[in-house]
Description:
By secondary structure, the protein is of the alpha/beta class. The chain is built from seven helices and eleven strands. Helix 3 (about 85-90) crosses helix 5 (about 170-180) and helix 5 (about 170-180) packs across helix 6. The protein is globular.
Amino acid sequence: MTTQNIIAVIPAAGVGRRMGANLPKQYLKILGKTILEHTILKLISVKQISRIVVAASKSDPYIADIIKPYSDVITLVEGGQERADSVLAGLNAIEASANTWVLVHDAARPCVLTADINNLISQCIKLERGGILASPVADTMKRDDGNLNISKTEQRKGMWHAYTPQMFKLLELKQAISKGLANQAEITDEASAMEYIGKPVLLVESNNCNIKVTRPDDLALAEFFLQKSIESNKE
C-alpha cells in the first residue's frame, strides 16, 4: 500500500470584519491562546498530518510570533486577497506528488474534534475521493428576496452545512482552484472548486461543535467547546 502524505493548509490572511475587533479574529484569545494557536494545535495532534502550511497577509504583524514555537512543522507563505488565493498559495508551496493529500482548514475553526479529522482522513483515503466535514441541516431554511422578506422556504432534506477540514488530492485541488480563478468562477470553499471541474466530493458527518468564529457571540461558544474538550482529554 502506498504511503499517503497529508499536509494541512490554513488560510489565515482574512481580517474578519464581521467580528468588529481591532485585530484579525484569528488573533483574538480564548483560554489564554489565540484562535489560530488552538487551530494549529488541533492539527498538530493529528498524527497523519506531516506538515502545516499557513497562508497569512504580507503585512501581518502577529503571525511570526504565533508560529515561532511550531517552526519545525509550519511553513509560512504569503496569502492572497481572497480565500481561494491564499489556499492556492499554500498549495504551491507543497512539493507535488501523486500520493499527496491536502487538508484545508479554516483558521477560525478551533473546536473541530480530532476524531472527526481522523474519520475524514480515513474515509477519503479508503474511497480514494476528496471529502469535507459537514452536518445535515436541522433548521427550516428560508430564502430572502433581497429586502429581508421571505421569498420561499427551501427544502432542507439533503441539505448540509459545509465545514472544514476539506481534504483532496493536491494535484486535483490545484487544478480546480486554478481553473476556477482563471474563469472567475465563484470559489467559496475547496469543495466548490472541485464541483466546478466535475469531481465528486464526499460528505463526512461532523460534530456540530465545529463552529467558525465569525461574530462576537461565537467567542463564548467556542470557549465552551474548547473548555469541554480540555476537560475531556484530562479524563
